[in-house]
């Protein structure tokens, strides 16, 4: 049988570090450099927007008076286009003004141009002018040479307002070629530091791998000698001190797991709850093995089915509670209409309502909304309806009510029936705690605990109280 070669852990860690560095460097290079150009251009566009709006405010008076061509503003605009900054930005020289500024009237005719080349031309069909004169954001990017991607020019326009009306537009244009040197310089800097950081990380990874391999060898030799009964000093680790406490940590973890009282109590309670239906099923099955009249066979078979359903319900609700306890908060929140939710619950319970001749009154504000999980909230309402149906008197009344206030939404369900004993009031939401129904049977004792968990997830409160002719359960949810 062929065996895999034994590669030391330290070497495997270094290989893993090397692969991760290569993948990370490749993704960073691909992502950052790919996003660099559009990011710089977006930043440039934002600057052009500010500049265009500033010029639109300054040009308002001259455009409104129709004297923009002879105004001092036009003279300054031309002088601006002829300036030579002689600036040096990040080692990139800037000797000419790269912005072009032109102004159009409300018909899209150019009435001023910093380059003095298109005065009098109709620009009304260009997107920057066309959209701006219609109150929209006007911008375009036009290539001067279709074969040269760097020949494209960004144009951003701003409306000129006068007495609340648009009387013209100001466009600021900038060639993408003028910002390309800065993009190239940034790419070189990114690549330079990417290479250096990759080398540093690989050196650190090699050192870490070597130290890990050395520490494991010391522990291995120590364990072998201890196993052979030799007296050997425990190795010490100045950096990887975790190895010193590894055995103690494992022992502590085992003790904590073994002593987990929660698990013991949970299992004991579950065992106790399952014992009763299992005993009933076993007794009924033993009796069914004897000759019996048909009605008794049907009765004991019905007992088996009822107790099986009880165990299935117990298991299903325990699984639901386990899932709820693992959720610290709701992941997605949607607006839920309480009117629709209650209506769905009442319609689903129509058969049981008719069987006991129960009157079900619903008074839910149509605007009552809760922000949360629709499925969980409806499941909680189904549990409340089941409880009410279990305890309501034959021919009694069940009432659903929901009201709104500034603080939130209050939803309540009440039923005519026996009141809750004082000794049981504080234990109603305990897991597995249940009161006997009208027929003497008990439920799984998980329904109200499930409701309480759901309400807490929705940042609400649950209250259970006796009233003159029965019991009332109230849910309060904070405002949406």
From TrEMBL:
One Gene Ontology MF term: phosphorelay sensor kinase activity
Transmembrane segments: 6-28, 190-210
Coiled-coil regions listed in the entry: 297-324
UniProt keyword annotations, A-Z: Coiled coil, Kinase, Membrane, Phosphoprotein, Transferase, Transmembrane, Transmembrane helix
Signal peptide positions (record): none
Record keyword DNA-binding present: no
Pfam families, sorted: HATPase_c (PF02518), HisKA (PF00512)
Highest taxon, organism lineage: Bacteria
GO terms under cellular component: plasma membrane
Top-level class of the enzyme under EC nomenclature: transferase
Catalytic reaction list: ATP + protein L-histidine = ADP + protein N-phospho-L-histidine
Coiled coil in keyword set: yes
Name recorded for this polypeptide: histidine kinase
The species this protein was found in: Photobacterium aquae
Lineage, broadest ranks: Bacteria, Pseudomonadati, Pseudomonadota, Gammaproteobacteria, Vibrionales
